[in-house]
Design a protein that fits this description.
The chain is of the alpha+beta class. The protein is 28% helix and 23% strand. Strand 11 and strand 12 form a beta hairpin. The protein is globular and about 50 Å long. The termini are far apart.
Length: 227
């Protein structure tokens, strides 16, 4: 007897009825085990030197400064949070902002300054979703190749069909309803993922999208450093 059958037997819900919690648990297990897990350490430069930071630390679930929203569904929440970041954070390079060629800011830093580059807004967006009650496994941060170079962005597993779609606040921002968005794997501007992570797990296997040109050579990642 699998988990779903056991729950249904306990709740006496019958074979044709499946409680939402069971569906949610099945999807969580599926997406958390679809790709090989790997600890990813990001090399963060500070004034006093370099630190290796586990990327999962960029989820700051207990930070009260992160705004939270209430919506009828997680899909509605995803679109609202995306619009909020787009409207409240100005795109600014790390070099201009922090004096480093690459610097991943924590959400409180991006909120304080009201600006940041791709990963800063993406990290903030992911944290807003988590703070607002979206299940952690539906929120994934990604670093990889896109048309034009390296990029960091959020993907969200929508409730419509439990498939991941892109939430990009700066490179190709869209106000399209979540249910009408193409799947992440079908997006033409997104080529491949070096690594990705949610609040609990990080995934290190290279993933390629359908939009990647045949002659494109992914740069990949080594120990959290782009190459």
């Amino acid at each position: 007897m699998d988990f779903k059958d056991w729950i249904c037997s306990v709740l006496n819900c019958g074979e044709k009825i499946c409680p939402p919690c069971v569906v949610e648990s099945e999807q969580e297990a599926f997406w958390n085990n679809k790709y090989p897990k790997q600890d990813i350490l990001y090399v963060r430069e500070e004034k006093d030197g370099e630190y290796q930071i586990d990327v999962r630390n960029y989820f700051q679930s207990f930070d009260s400064s992160i705004p939270g929203f209430s919506c009828a569904s997680n899909d509605d929440l995803a679109l609202l949070a995306l619009k909020w970041v787009k409207n409240n954070i100005d795109y600014t390079s790390d070099k201009t902002q922090y004096g480093f060629s690459e610097f991943w800011a924590y959400p409180y830093q991006t909120l304080k300054h009201g600006k940041g580059d791709c990963e800063d807004g993406a990290i903030l967006l992911a944290n807003i979703l988590l703070k607002s009650g979206c299940p952690y496994w539906r929120i994934r941060l990604n670093a990889g190749d896109v048309e034009g170079g390296g990029h960091a962005y959020v993907t969200y597993c929508r409730e419509t069909d439990n498939q991941f779609v892109v939430l990009d606040w700066c490179y190709w921002p869209k106000t399209t309803l979540i249910k009408d968005r193409p799947l992440h794997k079908d997006e033409q501007n997104y080529y491949g993922i070096w690594f990705s992570w949610n609040q609990k797990f990080s995934f290190g296997a290279m993933q390629t999208m359908k939009g990647m040109p045949n002659n494109f050579i992914p740069r990949g990642v080594t120990n959290g450093k782009k190459r």
